[in-house]
């Protein structure tokens, strides 16, 4: 049943990203990247290799639909690699072994920082690989900061709605 729920979440986030969010740009360079929310949802009990593979598959899907050859796959795979460590860092020390990241389980502040750090790392990698140089460094910084802010806000709002 968990596989069906995860697959449904995967598909919904892919469709929302491809059909709606990729057409939203703030200041011509900031786009909300909601699809990485899928990677952030994995709990502590999930094997690390599953998170990495799912991150790669999610990134590969985005690369296919957005025509960015390998950029999202590389960034999402790295996010899948570090997600368990970020979750351990921001989770309470006495938390359960089957902890699933949410506002309820981590608390408002820890959850916000968990999402902020993960999204910041992801957007930094994504836009650095995409730019591959610092010729237009102002746009690069605007893209990272704007996309990070939009994505974090969207994820926190969804998480708050989900928990009410």
Radius of gyration: 15 Å
Structural class: mainly alpha
Instruction: List the total number of helices.
Output: 7
Average pLDDT score: 89
Distance between the termini: 23 Å
Tell me what portion of residues adopts beta-strand conformation: under 5%
Q: Could you give the order of the helices and strands?
A: HHHHHHH
SS elements, strand count = 0
Biggest beta-sheet profile? none
Fraction of residues in H or I helices: over 70%
Please give a structural write-up:
- This protein has 164 residues and is mostly helical.
- Helix content is 70%, strand content 0%.
- The protein has seven helices and no strands.
- Helix 1 packs parallel to helix 3 (48-66), helix 3 (48-66) packs antiparallel against helix 4 and helix 4 (71-90) runs antiparallel to helix 6.
- The protein is globular and about 45 Å long.
- It starts with a helix and ends with a helix.
- The model has no long low-confidence stretch (mean pLDDT 89).
């Amino acid at each position: 049943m968990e596989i069906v729920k995860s697959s449904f979440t995967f598909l919904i986030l892919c469709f929302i990203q491809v059909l709606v969010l990729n057409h939203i740009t703030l200041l011509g360079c900031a786009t909300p990247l909601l699809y990485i929310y899928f990677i952030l949802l994995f709990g502590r009990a999930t094997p690390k290799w599953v998170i990495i593979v799912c991150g790669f598959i999610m990134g590969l899907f985005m690369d296919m639909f957005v025509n960015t050859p390998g950029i999202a796959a590389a960034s999402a795979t790295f996010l899948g690699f570090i997600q368990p460590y970020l979750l351990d860092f921001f989770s309470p020390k006495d938390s359960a072994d089957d902890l699933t990241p949410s506002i309820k389980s981590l608390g408002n502040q820890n959850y916000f920082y968990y999402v902020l750090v993960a999204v910041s790392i992801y957007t930094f990698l994504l836009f650095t690989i995409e730019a591959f140089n610092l010729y237009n460094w102002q746009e690069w910084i605007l893209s990272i900061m704007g996309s990070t802010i939009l994505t974090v806000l969207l994820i926190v709002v969804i998480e708050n709605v989900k928990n009410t």
